[in-house]
């Protein structure tokens, strides 16, 4: 039985196109607008995959809608921001309203940042329109591929707020052109896949559309899934630590991490497989994991 069993829900389609690889598709017609129900389900899905110990070693995130990745936040939910928060409780004064909004914003950030909490890499395949929240979603993934016709916009200023779910936190860390990031964030101007690659937001621009970029992302996911899960998960953890710490701090962290990780059986298995000219076979990360649920 597939690792994807029972994971699909109303607006999220999950399949296992290759061993140890999940394909997660956003599927809320007509434009993948994120209501509070949708983004909560999105975060819960990634956290569930991690907590259940499914033997997933890479995932691809994409849109099931041919013409776009997402139009961003549902405007109905956006309107609630100024009326006491998404809970709809409508506190009677500004101080209480701010506390309600603080909880909503932090919950939203936690949900959209869920791919970062996974032990496995998440590769996002972008195509069509990637507006507002779509940039937040992409920024929280490990690897970002875009079809060559993809159009982006950091849209939040157009609805009267600073992007607060991840874009402004991630982009200065993951891109190399701060001037270009600020230009697009302040102006909300549309920018192309080539612009996104120039600033460092995406690593590859794939000729074609939805099918081609998903195919490229799945190919990379298959390569990653064939590597030692101890090595890949450790690499992800160390890279995340490096982003937010000094070189000296990261070297200390890596030494502590590898003092345990180097005891893995994945190393002799990798060497034996190379010597025998065969594919390596690795155990799941967790002893309670089930390869097929």
TrEMBL record:
<keyword id="KW-0413">Isomerase</keyword>
<dbReference type="GO" id="GO:0051750">
    <property type="term" value="F:delta(3,5)-delta(2,4)-dienoyl-CoA isomerase activity"/>
</dbReference>
<keyword id="KW-0443">Lipid metabolism</keyword>
<comment type="similarity">
    <text>Belongs to the enoyl-CoA hydratase/isomerase family.</text>
</comment>
<dbReference type="InterPro" id="IPR029045">
    <property type="entry name" value="ClpP/crotonase-like_dom_sf"/>
</dbReference>
<protein>
    <submittedName>
        <fullName>Delta-2 dienoyl-CoA isomerase</fullName>
    </submittedName>
</protein>
<dbReference type="GO" id="GO:0006635">
    <property type="term" value="P:fatty acid beta-oxidation"/>
</dbReference>
<dbReference type="InterPro" id="IPR045002">
    <property type="entry name" value="Ech1-like"/>
</dbReference>
<dbReference type="InterPro" id="IPR014748">
    <property type="entry name" value="Enoyl-CoA_hydra_C"/>
</dbReference>
<dbReference type="InterPro" id="IPR001753">
    <property type="entry name" value="Enoyl-CoA_hydra/iso"/>
</dbReference>
<comment type="pathway">
    <text>Lipid metabolism; fatty acid beta-oxidation.</text>
</comment>
<dbReference type="GO" id="GO:0005739">
    <property type="term" value="C:mitochondrion"/>
</dbReference>
<dbReference type="Pfam" id="PF00378">
    <property type="entry name" value="ECH_1"/>
</dbReference>
<keyword id="KW-0276">Fatty acid metabolism</keyword>
